[in-house]
Design a protein that fits this description.
By secondary structure, this protein is of the alpha+beta class. Helices cover about 20% and strands about 30% of the residues. Strand 4 and strand 5 form a beta hairpin.
C-alpha cells in the first residue's frame, strides 16, 4: 500500500487562475454519526432534535468541521489534487447546513505564486436552497513533480 507510486495532482506549472472544482454531497445520518463517533463530539446541536429545536437553528445542524473536511478532501483529491497541502485557511459559516442537506461546493483557483510554490483558492459552499453555508479562502501548496531517484550511486562504496 505505501510502496506503490501514486498519481499526483496538478503541479504548479499545470495550474492556471480560473481553474475550478465543483461537487455536490448530500449529508446523511451515517456521515454525521461516523464523524461524531470518530471525534467523540457529542454536541447536542448536532444530534438532539429536542435541544436543537430550542436554539435559533431550530433543528440539528451539520458540524462545521465536517464541511471543512469536505473542502480539505476536494483540495487533496481534485484541485490541485493528491500531494497538495493546505497551508492556511480562512472560512466562515454564515448559515448552517442541516441534516439531509446538500453541500454544493465550488473551489476556484484565484492566484499562483510560483516563487513561494503556493496557490490561493476561494471557497464557496451553498445548500440546496442556494444559501451560502461556507465561504472563504485557502492557501495551498500544490504537489511537487516526481523526480527520479537513483539508489545505485555510491551503493558499493564500502566494498
Amino acid at each position: 500500500m505505501f510502496t506503490k507510486k501514486r498519481k499526483i495532482g496538478r503541479t504548479i506549472s499545470q495550474l492556471k487562475p480560473g481553474d475550478e472544482y465543483n461537487s455536490e454531497k448530500k449529508v446523511e445520518d451515517k456521515d454525521i454519526l461516523l464523524y461524531l463517533g470518530f471525534t467523540n463530539d457529542a454536541n447536542p446541536v448536532y444530534i438532539q432534535h429536542d435541544y436543537a429545536s430550542r436554539t435559533p437553528f431550530q433543528k440539528p445542524i451539520v458540524p462545521h468541521i465536517m464541511l471543512n473536511g469536505y473542502i480539505s478532501s476536494a483540495v487533496s483529491m481534485h484541485l490541485p489534487g493528491p500531494g497538495s497541502v493546505i497551508l492556511d485557511q480562512n472560512l466562515s459559516f454564515p448559515k448552517p447546513l442541516y441534516h439531509y442537506g446538500t453541500l454544493k461546493l465550488k473551489l476556484t483557483l484565484e492566484k499562483i505564486e510560483q516563487k513561494e510554490h503556493r496557490v490561493s483558492i476561494s471557497v464557496h459552499g451553498r445548500d440546496e436552497y442556494d444559501d451560502t453555508v461556507v465561504k472563504g479562502s485557502l492557501t495551498v501548496c500544490p504537489p511537487y513533480p516526481w523526480k527520479p531517484v537513483t539508489h545505485d550511486t555510491g551503493t558499493f562504496e564500502n566494498f
